[in-house]
Amino acid sequence: MAKADRGDGGRFVRSEYSIDERYDLVAAVARKARPDAPLQLTMKEFNDAAAGVAAKKKLPPKPPRAQTIYASLHKSWPTIVKEALDSSRNVQQTRAANERSEPALHLDERYIVYALRRVAMEIGEDFSEDQYDAARRELIRRHERHPGTMLVEILPTSGQVLALADNDWNKARRLAGLPVRKAKGRAPALPLERLIEHFFETKGRKPKAKEIRPYGNDELGIAVPDPAGVKWHDWLERTRAARAERGLSFDDAGPREAERLSEDELSALIASATPRSRWGHWNEKANVLAGLVEYVSLYDRRADLRQGHYIAVYAGKGWPPLKAIDQHYGGFQAGVKAARSAARRVA
């Protein structure tokens, strides 16, 4: 799902790329930058040529950087290039595998209610996340032939639904008035090498084994995966290999200045992280307010402080989940209003 910004003359132009458009752009850049060996396209070559290729293909402006595509699709860069260039690639399967990475900046709970009820009308009330996504794609396909329909814009993916519902599919179903399904268990934590890379970029050095869990749990507020019996040296080597694949170093002296990741790229590294459970902490209203004050102080006057924006940026920040904000303030905007007042008193 693509984000829209207001362009020249007040018209709306899309500023984010759908998954299909990301693959199309990678393929076009590979053929342009590496005509003799497109499969060998590097991230740097993509970043250098993407804007020009996007303009010629009349794709949205400001194409994503290779590092952003890599982080959002959760695949190696060579795999992404190979899939993009594969003419036999099953577009529906590739989209389904990546749907949970798409942004959800403009959505709120009304979209959950409409979308889940709309799908229930098609396939019945008892459906999983994957079954929901399959029904969503079929609805969009059927309506594409009718001018004026915009189901692709108003039916969020299952990942976007989960982002709005605190990673709880049953909460989404309850909002839509559907019966609760048996829980499937907790979502997996993000790959450990991504957390190691985030530490490396943020702290300017490689982490020690004993530092990584407090860093993820306490500083970022996210779940940290179990090392699964792999030695720490091997995890560092995996991180080195992942960065080398993207043309980046992993030196003992820290990241090289010319290779430092942007703020967006850092956020993308941990975008798939599962928030650490801190319900005892969030039961205290003062803790919820403190987190919201940080959010307001950082983004007020820089962004429209809506629920959708908060969902897009709060992962890994240690800020309260929407459920805790609702618990104490009865709604997101009421929490933002309280945080603004508190921030003014501190100032």
Characterise this structure.
The structure is a single chain. This protein has 347 residues and is mostly helical. It folds into four domains: 4-98, no CATH class; 109-175, no CATH class; 192-269, no CATH class; 279-346, no CATH class. It has helices at residues 19-33, 43-56, 66-73, 77-85, 91-98, 109-123, 129-143, 151-154, 158-164, 169-175, 192-203, 209-220, 232-245, 263-269, 279-282, 285-299, 307-313, 322-329, 332-346, and strands spanning 4-6, 12-14. The chain has a two-stranded antiparallel ribbon. Helix 1 crosses helix 2 (43-56).
Low-confidence stretches: 1-15, 99-105, 183-187
Strand content is under 5%
Q: Which geometry do the CA atoms define?
A: globular
The SS-based structural class is mainly alpha
Q: Number of DSSP strands?
A: 2
Distance between the termini: 39 Å
Order of helices and strands: EEHHHHHHHHHHHHHHHHHHH
Q: Determine the number of helices (DSSP H or I, runs of at least 4 residues).
A: 19
Features:
19 helices; disordered N terminus; globular; mainly alpha; 56% helix; 347 residues; two-stranded antiparallel ribbon; 4 domains
What's the gist of this structure?
The chain has 347 residues and is mostly helical. The chain has helices at residues 19-33, 43-56, 66-73, 77-85, 91-98, 109-123, 129-143, 151-154, 158-164, 169-175, 192-203, 209-220, 232-245, 263-269, 279-282, 285-299, 307-313, 322-329, 332-346; strands at residues 4-6, 12-14. The chain has 19 helices and two strands.
